[in-house]
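User: Could you check the structure of this?
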Amino acid sequence: MKQIIVGVDVGGTAIKMALITPNGELVAKIQEPTPVAEGEDGVLQKIAGMTRALLHEHGYSLEQASGIGVGIPGPIDAKNGIVMQAVNLHWTKPVLLKQKLEALTGRPVEVDNDANAAALGEMWQGAGQGAQDLVLITIGTGVGGGMILNGNVIHGMNGVGGEIGHITMAPTGGAPCNCGKTGCLETFTSATAIIREGHLAATNGTSPHLAHVLAETGKIGAKDVFDAAIAGDAASLAIADQVALYLGLALSHLAIVLNPVKFVIGGGVAAAGDFLFSRIRDSFTRFVPFTYVVESTQILPATLGNDAGVYGAGWLIRSRMEA
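Assistant: Sure, the predicted structure tokens are below.
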């Protein structure tokens, strides 16, 4: 009987779902709004209903599904399939996701954090192909990540392994972070940080370019800052250089501790392309003490985009099939 894998990426706004073959071919995908207001049971019912509908639409029975992999934000007890908390979903208490979704569908379920799932997706079918040791860094509103050693995600004791954005880069001072600390990597390199610095440059007279953008549109975006930097705006270039400096420094620390083959960087900020990546590599080279580590470590843009999460969720089932 031909088998298929269901990969699910649950966010606070949307549930993305894909059917994936065991060899990694994406057969179909859909996206529907997350019914956050209906609570955990409403979200799980939605996932179960989407699963049945998508399988039926593409000629598969529920029994042909090898399993359902789920990536979801927040700390996860991956071994037992428990979501400890999911702020974006308003889940303040542990949710027995594996147990409940298996009861609703009759299929095996595996669960992990969404950033870990994205890392697994890039390892399976993205920029991380061929690497069993890699680190994914996602740079958007915040900075997240997933760390994989010998093909296995590092979860840590409380499921917070891979929270790269909260490495302290400024032990004193620094901008406040949503985690409650100050000076986290996220406060230097996220889109939020870039926008903050860009707005400051636009209003304090150091960037006429960004001041014009602000006057025309009423806002500053991270892309505006990088576009201005590429155009030669000195203040914007200083912001881009700071982002690259701190990212390269953080990656150098991770390289010495984990020694991965690849660092894969995704999220909106990564769209700045080689302008940013060349600077990150320069910073990384500056701070890594061992030449052979620099030479053997690749720093690459992610390639799966919004599909990384469903691929990684699918990999949770694919790896289970091999066990």
